[in-house]
Q: What sequence folds into this?
């Protein structure tokens, strides 16, 4: 395990290439035994849009600048406190996205897979429910702000017990 973990947080309006991000992350974690990554993509549907009977054409993600980056950095520190991870990255988009675009990228590196998997899962569960991002979905019938779903909240709650 590296003596000093490296953490990267980026909150940006610009598109990113998840494959290139994973390659760069893996290249800088040469001593790790495991790298786990997750890429979240914008779909053309959601639970809410399906209930309304419509296909999504866009999603707008708003955030609180400065606060979002600080909370994501704190989240990475918490992941390091819980698991022996050597490195971690969180990239999160904001602005208007269209179906198929990458929204979020999370990667965790560790000497062993268990810590890398757990840290990546923890990061995503908390990102979905605790990070200061607000989501508005747009379809043919207009736009609607989206609340956190009970399933996401339940997944995040399991980490409060650990």
A:
């Amino acid at each position: 395990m590296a003596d000093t973990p490296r953490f990267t947080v980026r909150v940006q309006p610009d598109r990113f290439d998840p494959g290139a991000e994973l390659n760069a992350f893996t290249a800088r974690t040469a001593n790790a035994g495991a790298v786990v990554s997750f890429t979240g993509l914008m779909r053309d549907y959601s639970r809410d849009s399906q209930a309304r009977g419509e296909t999504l054409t866009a999603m707008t993600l708003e955030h609180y600048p400065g606060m979002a980056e600080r909370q994501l950095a704190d989240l990475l520190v918490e992941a390091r406190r819980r698991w022996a991870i050597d490195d971690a990255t969180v990239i999160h988009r904001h602005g208007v996205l269209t179906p198929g675009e990458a929204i979020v990228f999370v990667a965790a590196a560790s000497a062993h897979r268990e810590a890398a998997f757990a840290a990546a899962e923890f990061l995503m569960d908390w990102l979905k429910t605790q990070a200061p991002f607000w989501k508005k979905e747009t379809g043919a019938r207009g736009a609607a702000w989206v609340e956190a779903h009970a399933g996401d909240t339940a997944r995040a709650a399991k980490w409060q017990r650990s």
